[in-house]
């Protein structure tokens, strides 16, 4: 037997070796940016985490995205998409392999974005979201125009100025972010919000919606390529104009909208006509209408004169009728006498046939005929009554058998219902307790949220609320005059004070002007929103 040569190398466990390798890898590659192609991506697993690989021409590395990180990603991984992943390299001791834990993900350049955009366009087009047959015409002269855009950019000013020049209308602005994380959800919510306005709401419902944004790169305009925005534009019951970017920029909302404008200014021009042109056209049509009516009346007057000259004289028309009337008047006495003589002769002949014996015979024959018909009717009635009695007897027997079967069926249904009622009665206390617990938790959460948002929490941290003598809050020192009676509210109570000294003179800031009110008269200029 061969003796084993002793060694002085210390022994370590597999777990210790794996932990040492893990520390070495994480220390050396604590933060990396990898460029590669997504492979083996099948979506989130049952736990919500995502497992796939990043590969290039020569190698592949396992990748994982935890559930919380995946929900915050702006771009979701897709099979075959080239991406740039940022994260940290670590090891998984359970299978002795290394992997990258991804914390952020972005497409690898414009080419990847264009590939993703084309794939999404084909998918939505296959669902019919870009069908031209469903696009609706824009209203010719909308009363209210809804604008979805950033309230601080130059886009809304261009739209308002163009509407003011062409045809002032009421404008409702729904402020949103037009780029960055969360912008797509805000734009979609704004479109759905305009559609949710009802006839009884305080704000008027827009007749047309303009979704506008200035120019930018493909990444800046990416929010308008998101599926949530495209579906909101497709579902909009109000006609929608997309005015995103410049004339050369194209986003997916352009295909789903009813009209696409090359610029936000062009969208305003599509929404309303030019008021001066309408007035001139109306005046021209009015003048043409007056001239047409005058020419028509003159033509009818000329035709009437020509027809009057062609008519014969009235005396000549009545001559023949008058002569026929005279001839009939001369023949009338002789005709009346002959008619009376003929009727007298017929009356005498009829009177000879109306003797008492003749009438008695006719009455006797009619009586015999009536008695015969009465006997036949009684026999027929008795026969029909007996036939109906047999039919009713048959129906009664069938009904008795059916009632027995129905009674047994209903008894079975009542028994099953009683068993189901007992089961529900047994489950009711547990369900009620669960509902009460859930309601109690929601009430506790709402109470905490109310406490967090209340201004009294701010007072408890050492601040004070200043009001004037009428109880109105004061937000600046310029609103306080010397000698003014003030009410100071602290967390533990209120006190009154008197202002001393001289307030600093700060020029008041101009108050922002809101959109034109609902009751504004037609034709007045559009007010500024800033």
Q: What order do the helices and strands come in, and which of them pair?
A:
Layout: H1 14-28, E1 32-39, E2 50-55, E3 60-65, H2 67-72, E4 82-92, E5 97-107, H3 109-126, E6 144-149, H4 154-166, E7 170-175, H5 183-196, E8 208-213, H6 227-235, E9 240-244, H7 252-256, E10 259-260, H8 264-271, H9 275-310, H10 314-353, H11 356-453, H12 455-460, E11 465-467, E12 485-490, E13 493-498
Parallel strand pairs: 3-5, 6-7, 6-8, 8-9, 9-10
Antiparallel strand pairs: 1-2, 1-4, 2-3, 4-5, 11-12, 12-13
Q: What is the CATH homology-level superfamily of the domain at 136-273?
A: Succinyl-CoA synthetase domains
Radius of gyration, in angstroms, nearest whole number: 48 Å
Number of strands: 13
Shape: extended
Low-confidence stretches: 514-530
Quick synopsis:
This protein has 530 residues and is of the alpha/beta class. Among the domains are: 14-107, OB fold (Dihydrolipoamide Acetyltransferase, E2P) (Beta Barrel); 136-273, Succinyl-CoA synthetase domains (Rossmann fold), CATH 3.40.50.261; 280-310; 460-498, no CATH class.
Structure keywords:
alpha/beta; OB fold (Dihydrolipoamide Acetyltransferase, E2P); Rossmann fold; 5-stranded mixed barrel; 5-stranded parallel beta sheet; 12 helices; extended
Description:
By secondary structure, this protein is an alpha/beta fold. Among the domains are: 14-107, Nucleic acid-binding proteins (OB fold (Dihydrolipoamide Acetyltransferase, E2P)); 136-273, Rossmann fold; 280-310; 460-498, no CATH class. It is 51% helix and 15% strand. It contains twelve helices and 13 strands. It has helices at 14-28, 67-72, 109-126, 154-166, 183-196, 227-235, 252-256, 264-271, 275-310, 314-353, 356-453, 455-460; strands spanning 32-39, 50-55, 60-65, 82-92, 97-107, 144-149, 170-175, 208-213, 240-244, 259-260, 465-467, 485-490, 493-498. It has a five-stranded mixed beta barrel. The protein has a five-stranded parallel sheet with strand order 7-6-8-9-10, with helices on both faces. α4 (154-166) runs parallel beside α8 (264-271).
């Amino acid at each position: 037997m061969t003796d084993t040569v002793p060694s002085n190398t210390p022994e370590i466990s597999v777990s210790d070796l794996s932990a040492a390798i893990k520390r070495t890898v994480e220390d050396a590659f604590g933060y990396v940016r990898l460029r590669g192609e997504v492979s083996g991506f099948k979506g989130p697993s049952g736990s919500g985490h995502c497992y796939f690989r990043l590969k290039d021409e020569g190698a592949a590395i396992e990748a994982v995205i935890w559930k919380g990180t995946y929900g915050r990603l702006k771009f979701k991984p897709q099979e075959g998409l080239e991406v740039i992943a940022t994260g940290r390299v670590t090891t998984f001791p359970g299978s002795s392999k290394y992997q990258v834990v991804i914390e952020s993900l972005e497409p690898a350049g414009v080419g990847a974005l264009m590939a993703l955009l084309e794939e999404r366009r084909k998918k939505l087009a296959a669902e019919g979201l870009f069908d031209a047959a469903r696009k609706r015409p824009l209203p010719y002269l909308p009363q209210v125009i809804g604008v979805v855009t950033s309230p601080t950019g130059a886009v809304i000013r261009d739209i308002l100025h163009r509407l003011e020049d062409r045809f002032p209308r009421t404008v409702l602005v729904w402020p949103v972010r037009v780029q960055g994380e969360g912008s797509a959800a805000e734009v979609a919510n704004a479109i759905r919000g305009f559609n949710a306005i009802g006839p009884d709401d305080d704000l008027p419902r827009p007749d047309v919606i303009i979704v506008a944004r200035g120019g930018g790169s493909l990444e800046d305009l990416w929010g308008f390529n998101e599926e949530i925005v495209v579906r909101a534009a497709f579902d909009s019951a109000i006609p929608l104009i997309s005015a995103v970017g410049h004339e050369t920029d194209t986003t997916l909302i352009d295909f789903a909208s009813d009209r696409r404008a090359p610029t936000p200014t062009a969208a305003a021009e599509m929404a309303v006509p030019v008021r001066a042109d309408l007035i001139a056209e109306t005046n021209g049509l009015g003048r043409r209408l007056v001239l047409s009516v005058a020419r028509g009346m003159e033509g009818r007057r000329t035709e009437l004169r020509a027809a009057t000259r062609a008519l014969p004289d009235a005396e000549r028309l009545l001559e023949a009728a008058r002569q026929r009337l005279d001839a009939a008047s001369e023949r009338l006495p002789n005709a009346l006498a002959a008619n009376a003589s003929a009727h007298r002769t017929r009356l005498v002949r009829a009177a000879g046939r109306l003797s008492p014996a003749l009438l008695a015979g006719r009455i006797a024959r009619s009586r015999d005929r009536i008695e015969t018909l009465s006997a036949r009717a009684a026999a027929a009635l008795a026969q029909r009554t007996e036939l109906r009695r047999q039919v009713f007897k048959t129906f009664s027997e069938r009904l008795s058998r059916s009632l027995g079967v129905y009674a047994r069926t209903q008894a079975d249904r009542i028994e099953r219902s009683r068993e189901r009622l007992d089961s529900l009665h047994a489950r009711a206390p547990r369900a009620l307790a669960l509902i009460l617990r859930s309601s109690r938790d929601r009430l506790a959460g709402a109470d905490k949220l109310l406490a967090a948002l209340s201004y009294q929490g701010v007072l408890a941290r050492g601040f004070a609320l200043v009001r004037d003598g009428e109880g109105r809050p004061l937000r600046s020192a310029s609103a306080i005059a010397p000698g003014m009676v003030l009410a100071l509210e602290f967390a533990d109570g209120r006190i009154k004070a008197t202002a001393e000294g001289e307030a600093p003179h700060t020029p008041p800031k101009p108050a922002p002007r809101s959109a034109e009110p609902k009751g504004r008269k037609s034709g007045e200029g559009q007010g500024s929103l800033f």
